[in-house]
Protein: Chlorophyllide a reductase subunit Y
Organism: Paeniroseomonas aquatica
Amino acid sequence: MATEAPSCHGGRETMLDAARTAGKSEQVARMLADYPRGPHDQPQSMCPAFGSLRVGLRMRRTATILSGSACCVYGLTFTSHFYGAKRTVGYVPFNSESLVTGKLFEDIREAVHETARPADYDTVIVINLCVPTASGVPLDLLPKQIDGVRIIGIDVPGFGVPTHAEAKDVLAGAMLRYARNEAEAGPVARPRNLVDGEPTVALIGELFPADPMGVAALLAPMGLAVAPQTPAREWRDLYAALDCEVAAAVHPFYTASIREFRAAGRPVVGSGPVGVEGTEAWLNAIGRAAGLPQSRIDLALGKALPAIRAALDAAPIKARVTVSGYEGSELLVARLLVEAGAEVPYVGTACPRTEWSEADRAWLASRGTHVQYRASLEQDMAAMLEVKPDLALGTTPLVQKAKEQGIPALYFTNMVSARPLFGPAGAGSMAAIVAAQTRGRERFGRMVSFFEGVGTPDGAGYGFREKPVDPPGFRDRQRKLRAAKAKAEEAVGT
Ligand code: SF4
């Protein structure tokens, strides 16, 4: 009898066991250590592999190939194009036979050889989704490079990587590791815009595009510049990032990437320059990690802090706000809100607790904020319903729930992450969105009473003139039919 291919509905433990049995014990152990699990055993947001796919698609001269079930690949390609990817997503399909006979690996290898054209690409990324990972498709046996094109294979299953945020780290870390090994082996390509002898700070995390410029302005008085960000936008940027003086884990969940910066001998600093107190602590930590004298650090503080103070004072926030998200910047956003005057009783992040957000957690906890790591949607909703905020920042289902309750709410990813967060620009932008949304509270209340009962299960949708009603006697007839069927089945069984 042919071996059954594991189903992607098999449950987390079944899939993990299958992956271990299929020869991926080492990869499974690394995933579980890097991305500790939360209260739920399956991702509660989009497919985690989207994080890796997006990192690959945003990088110049990089081809990205998926190996997984067609339904997963359909969803991932749809989402990537929805978010504006202008690149082709490669796909190597499989069926039960090609999976269990090892033909899928042969097909992947063939696809990689066809794709690895040095004129077009620096790198080819292959991503194993749930089923190929659980089946042990051995991407580590792919050639490491073909005609100078680097080949990187990674496993990003939903049963091992809990959020798409952490999946970004899986690929970013794999690329940093490859680049570090290259740099250690001999000369590498010169990064664009490299200024010789200029010490830099490498920011870790996908940031709003204006933020690195804002951070550069904060660092300039100390004589520090900003290195290319992680995840990188082109291969040679990886060398420049690794060549930094200090790595800044602004998004605190990049465990694999931070491991590479540390292996390259770089000190790593957590938190970020938010608000007056956050910026003061961060600039001090960066300056000290770079070995600068306090007088140089004080120059930067003297320039940054008054400007941030002025921006916060110009737009104070008077509202109770809850914050939930899966971006990794939730604690920083909450700090900024608190410094601006908001009451923030709850922050939930789908990301895990790490040492890089510890300063933010302690700062928030000392001001009465409950910080929930690996927050589930149920925890986020319960917190929002309990504290009844003037504004809930959260994920799509949380925002929907808030609106049903007449609570003004904003989608974290599109509205909060799409604004500057750091320095004076961040301090100014947050107040504007909070004020605009909380002004609408009364309008939300009117909407709830207007739509009362519409869209809830029994009265969902619209009739020709009014809310649909059940045909007379329909439910009664159905109940009797179900009872008769159950009785008949019972009779057969005895
Ligand atoms: S790859 Fe895994 S987590 Fe992603 S959609 Fe498919 S089954 Fe779900």
User: Anything to note?
Assistant: The chain is about 50% helix and 15% strand. The longest strand covers residues 149-155. The chain has three domains: 12-162, 200-310, 316-448.
